[in-house]
Write a structure and sequence with these properties.
The protein is α/β, with parallel strands linked by helices and 275 residues long. Helix content is 44%, strand content 19%. It folds into 2 domains: 124 residues, Aldehyde Oxidoreductase, domain 3, CATH 3.90.1170; 143 residues, TIM Barrel (Alpha-Beta Barrel). The protein has 11 helices and 12 strands. Strands 6-11-10-9-8-7 form a 6-stranded parallel β-sheet. The protein is elongated, with a radius of gyration of 23 Å.
Length: 275
């Protein structure tokens, strides 16, 4: 939780700096109030405890009452939580708390849609490292809330030989050979491929996992047939809600989608004071 606190504190410093000029000028410091946080569109909630922490890092006396938990599918205008305390504190924390809620709920919502789109097929939806710098731990949490799985947290906890590694080594066989010589015993070796020829090379080299990059469903299906279960197959690149079911039908084991985090739309969530 220390990492989360650090992210929130940095976000608050970014927004408030030496102080909220407007709020401090017009709101009496002894004025208390209550506000409701509301979903303004259908969404999957993620980040409610992060929002609570945001308010409490501004003012530990602020109370947030959850009306639903992370992972809840909410309809438009459904109340999410109520916050109470000094109005000055609520206003100072509002924008940062809502930014986290809107962004993380956007990730959980789109992840949920992809997961629902492949129902009935034995395939997992994975995220990637295409995250906003500094927010990865939060964004990958939101993917899990939406029903997805984390691929790897960073370059330090997964072994993935990508195209530039292959180019620098002079080919897949040499890259895998070097990788196996230095592979930690608890890690699987994954290789990125762009064609069936490269899939065959990766299989012959002994890759544990093969990434099928930007391949058509027909080519992915051929790769599945070629692998015959000898390696875990992951499809990635160009995956959209419109075509993901066709990819899932190929029999691939996993589908990784950078768009879950790198270009997600923030959902509409607002805070309104109660009279």
């Amino acid at each position: 939780m220390d990492r989360i606190d650090e992210i929130i504190q940095n976000a608050l410093k970014e927004d408030l700096g030496p102080g909220d000029k407007t709020t401090e000028a017009v709101i009496p410091s002894d004025l208390y109030g209550r506000a409701r946080i509301i979903a303004r569109e259908t969404l999957v909630l993620a980040g409610i405890d992060i929002a609570r922490k945001t308010f409490q890092l501004v003012d530990p006396a602020v109370e947030l009452k959850k009306l639903c938990d992370d992972g809840t599918l909410l309809e438009k205008d459904r109340p999410i939580a109520e916050v109470s305390g000094r109005v000055e504190s609520l206003l100072k924390a509002e924008r940062t708390a809502l930014n986290f809620l809107q962004h993380l709920s956007g990730i959980a919502t789109i992840t949920h849609r992809f997961v629902e789109a492949v129902k009935g097929h034995n395939v997992k939806i994975f995220d990637t490292r295409k995250t906003l710098p500094g927010l990865r731990v939060m964004e990958k949490y939101a993917v899990r809330v939406g029903g997805g799985f984390n691929h790897r947290m960073g370059a330090y906890d997964g072994f993935l030989i990508k195209d530039n590694h292959i180019a620098a080594c002079g080919g897949i066989a040499e890259a895998v050979k070097r990788g196996k010589q230095n592979l930690p015993h608890y890690m699987k070796l994954e290789v990125e491929t762009k064609s069936l020829v490269e899939v065959e090379e990766a299989l012959e080299a002994g890759a544990d996992v093969i990434l099928l990059d930007n391949m058509t469903p027909e080519t992915i299906e051929a790769a599945v047939s070629l692998a015959q279960g000898k390696a875990f197959l992951e499809a990635s690149g160009g995956i959209r809600l419109e075509n993901i079911r066709d990819v899932a039908k190929t029999g691939v084991n996993a589908i990784s989608i950078g768009a879950l985090t790198h270009s997600v739309r923030a959902v509409d969530i607002s805070m309104e004071f109660l009279t």
